[in-house]
Design brief:
The chain is 30% helix and 18% strand. By secondary structure, it is of the alpha/beta class. Helix 1 packs parallel to helix 6. It is elongated and about 80 Å long.
Length: 503
């Protein structure tokens, strides 16, 4: 659906304000709630505007992974040694190319402090580690590998450590009271205790600027009625990505067109468009995460091939890396080759995801039979399996570096699972912001009064991804957005107040 043209509004054209506060936060997901908490703690009167009927956003429906490291108390309690430098090295290598190194530096330097901030706000992490590949822990374990740190090509040069921190879940009801819910619930409660007020069923439409070009409020609509909200200090945009804006996806990230995932319909790109109406710069608008819809327990036990019968990525790495490699470099063509024993073993694993435990598409008594059933050129699959099995007999994979834990010769009967087109993704690009979450103009200067965080910005991910970077990035830089907004224009406001009191 085509969006109406978004333009800025002049404050002089507003006859009356419906609300007036210090800081206005647009969006009540992870970035919005974190901004609201810190702005309130900085002494600002805060109003959150949320288009849905309640708080939470996409974060509340997620698995809840928060990417943290550098030696968090949870990592230490579970016996894992991690350093800030190792965390930085991995993020710069895995989340690029073209990562914002300043953001990664400050994110890693303050990762332990951010963990403590979350705990102080009521988020609970159970001291339990889940060591199996999977989309998320099947139980309420608090720590798991979530980015391929322990797989090739990273594990041989950067000491791996698990950094996927998962809030303890209530009876493990993913999607209802899963990790994302257990992350957002205490944060929203913390915001409410600090006096943060929220207005729901209200859609932010445009930014309002004064004669000097400073953002001083937002124009919104509620049930078709215009609602104008004044921000004495600043506006924080935290309205999510543009994954559900077909025109923006078509123009910037067409490879995921028609297959949005891990997003909600509220992710319509409006925050980005509003800021662009003021000349805001964007970055990495073509970058996307790509989910690969197959159970990792199957993947690690099999051999993943392309349409030419060749392996193209190690099967035990992060599923998001597999998804990107498949969609971007293999034209979305993939087949998993797995024998009967391995399939049965995966099916019985506690870490398997039932809805992703796909059944074989073709079965053969020999590799040659299977090759013919799939329709691959004669000899292609046979040569791939022969080479894999030759080294697997010794427990190694010199071609792609699969962890010996998962290397075992493929036997017969042997099957193939058709994975063509089983990808979906969400956008990673957005507004360019600095490390204080100020939205930057194309000139490189901050736009006065405007801040942003979360998936409407270009954060620590510039191309690659690791589960937990969205919630980690959103909460971390959301906090900075709230602090910056609360401080914005504050000296002027204090000066005016002093003058009024003296009179």
């Amino acid at each position: 659906m085509s969006d109406a043209k978004i333009t800025q509004i002049s404050a002089k054209d507003i006859d009356a304000w419906d609300f007036e506060v210090d800081v206005v936060v647009a969006g009540y997901g992870i970035a919005g709630v974190s901004a609201a908490i810190e702005a309130a703690r900085a002494g600002a009167e805060v109003l959150v505007l949320e288009r849905s009927a309640g708080s939470g956003g996409a974060a509340s429906m997620s698995g809840g992974f928060i990417y943290l490291g550098g030696g968090t108390p949870l990592q230490k309690a579970l016996g894992f040694h991690d350093t800030t430098e190792n965390m930085k090295a991995f993020m710069k290598a895995a989340l690029g190319p073209g990562t914002d190194e300043q953001k990664i530096e400050v994110y890693c330097d303050e990762s332990v402090d951010h963990y403590n901030w979350l705990v102080d706000a009521g988020v609970t992490f159970k001291e339990s580690y889940w060591d199996q590949p999977g989309w998320e822990p099947p139980y309420d374990d608090g720590l798991m590998y979530s980015g391929g740190e322990n797989a090739a090509p990273f594990s041989s040069s950067i000491p791996p450590a698990p950094r996927g921190h998962v809030p303890q879940m209530s009876e493990k009801k993913t999607g209802e009271q899963g990790g994302g819910y257990m992350l957002m619930k205490p944060l929203v409660e913390t915001a409410e205790k600090l006096g943060v007020h929220a207005e729901y069923d209200i859609r932010v439409q445009s930014l309002i600027i004064d004669a000097e070009g400073r953002v001083v409020g937002v124009a919104s609509k509620r049930y078709g009625k215009d609602v104008y909200v004044k921000a004495r200090r600043g506006v924080v945009l935290a309205m999510g990505s543009f994954a559900y804006n077909e025109e923006m996806v078509r123009a910037n990230a067409p490879r995921i067109l028609g297959r949005p995932a891990a997003s909600i319909e509220a992710h319509d790109g409006k925050a980005i468009q509003m800021a662009q109406s003021l000349g805001a710069e964007t970055a990495h608008m073509d970058a996307t995460e790509v989910a690969f819809f197959c159970d990792p327990q199957l993947l690690v036990r099999g051999v993943l091939i392309n349409a030419r019968g060749q392996r193209y990525i190690t099967e035990d790495t992060y599923a998001g890396r597999i998804g990107q490699a498949t969609l971007f470099h293999q034209d979305n063509q993939a087949f998993l080759i797995i024998d009967e024993a391995a399939f049965e073993e995966a099916s019985k694993s506690e870490s398997s995801t039932p809805e992703l435990l796909l059944q074989p598409t073709w079965v053969g008594e020999t590799v040659e039979d299977l090759e013919s059933e799939i329709g691959l050129p004669a000899g292609t699959l046979q040569s791939t399996v022969d080479l894999y099995n030759r080294y697997a007999a010794e427990g190694s994979d010199p071609l792609l570096g699969k962890n010996p834990r998962w290397v075992k010769p493929l036997g017969t009967p042997i099957a193939a699972i058709d994975l063509r087109g089983r990808t979906g993704g969400f956008t990673l690009g957005g507004l360019r912001t600095d490390t204080d979450s100020r939205v930057l103009h194309v000139s490189g200067k901050p736009i006065p009064g405007l801040f942003a965080a979360g998936r409407c910005t270009s954060g620590v991910c510039a191309g690659g991804y690791a589960s937990g970077t969205s919630l980690g990035d959103g909460s971390f830089f959301g906090r900075r957005a709230g602090i910056s907004a609360a401080r914005e224009n504050n000296d002027v406001l204090v000066s005016v107040a002093v003058q009024r009191n003296s009179n």
